[in-house]
Amino acid sequence: MSATQTYMFYRGYALPTETHSEESLKFAQEFEFGDDDVVAVTYPKSGTVWTQEILPLVLNGGDLTPIQTIPNWDRVPWLEEKRLAVVVDQLPSPRAMVTHFPYHLMPPSFHKSKAKVIYITRNPKDVLVSSYYFHQMAGFLEDPGTFDEFMEKFLAGKVLFGKWTDHVKSWRHTDLGDRIMYITYEEMVQDLPAALRRFSDFLGCNLSEDTIQKISEHCSFKSMKANNMSNFSMIPKQYMDADKSPFLRKGISGDWKNHFSSEQLARFSAVIMKEMEDENFSRPWSL
Ligand code: A3P
């Protein structure tokens, strides 16, 4: 069996059919959010799988059982993907999910609930690089072409979940008030215990410093790379080929410097800056 590179269209977004279906997207729209639910929201390649490690540990006082026994995609499922319907009844309370949906695609019940949101932003230049390698290793995604070609697709929003700028902006203009916490991938890389304290405070978990340190060790890039429940090693090679590029690839900030020419940097920054010019957007990286 080989992976198919077919896509479906959903409200203007092209999504791979290996992971999404009409049924899964209907399931997401009809999903009943509860007040205790927690959802981590990301533009793809911004640290989604990282939160699938962090959330169960933070929500369960550092209990390692979920991250050692349940694959990441079932432990903290994607709202929009096929697995949610399969595992939804087994999710412990409080339920934790992830989604790549922009704000306007969130289901009606989400808006009526008090579910909490953690929105993670990553430097779009590193998102592009990470996505470029992901498209090479994931057999169900179309070949990215050259880095230059892929950059143009990214800037035009002809990639998973559209333009990075639209996604980030959509989640900055919400009426969620204190239901949403913003954090960056870069802050998490720079000081994971500090980031975990923010997760814990926001989710009302009251974790001790010892527990924060323990969770930090288990969520490190090195630990996750060695965790077969989180490193996608259980996925057959035709779907994800770690020989082409591991899913947990580098886990650093600034790898874009190894990939962008000065022309590409100028072009990329000009487009992103123009699209973000009306936003008062502080970030720990320069565009
Ligand atoms: P790189 O390709 O730059 O290494 P997503 O889960 O949203 O698809 O994001 C994947 C990116 O998050 C990859 O980036 C991956 O290595 C990185 N990542 C996952 N776990 C991480 C961790 N514990 N520490 C740092 N980066 C991590």
UniProtKB/TrEMBL annotation:
<dbReference type="GO" id="GO:0009725">
    <property type="term" value="P:response to hormone"/>
</dbReference>
<dbReference type="GO" id="GO:0008146">
    <property type="term" value="F:sulfotransferase activity"/>
</dbReference>
<dbReference type="GO" id="GO:0006805">
    <property type="term" value="P:xenobiotic metabolic process"/>
</dbReference>
<dbReference type="GO" id="GO:0006584">
    <property type="term" value="P:catecholamine metabolic process"/>
</dbReference>
<protein>
    <recommendedName>
        <fullName>Sulfotransferase</fullName>
        <ecNumber>2.8.2.-</ecNumber>
    </recommendedName>
</protein>
<dbReference type="InterPro" id="IPR000863">
    <property type="entry name" value="Sulfotransferase_dom"/>
</dbReference>
<keyword id="KW-0128">Catecholamine metabolism</keyword>
<dbReference type="GO" id="GO:0033574">
    <property type="term" value="P:response to testosterone"/>
</dbReference>
<feature type="domain" description="Sulfotransferase">
    <location>
        <begin position="35"/>
        <end position="278"/>
    </location>
</feature>
<keyword id="KW-0963">Cytoplasm</keyword>
<dbReference type="GO" id="GO:0051923">
    <property type="term" value="P:sulfation"/>
</dbReference>
<dbReference type="Pfam" id="PF00685">
    <property type="entry name" value="Sulfotransfer_1"/>
</dbReference>
<dbReference type="InterPro" id="IPR027417">
    <property type="entry name" value="P-loop_NTPase"/>
</dbReference>
<dbReference type="GO" id="GO:0005737">
    <property type="term" value="C:cytoplasm"/>
</dbReference>
<comment type="similarity">
    <text>Belongs to the sulfotransferase 1 family.</text>
</comment>
<keyword id="KW-0808">Transferase</keyword>
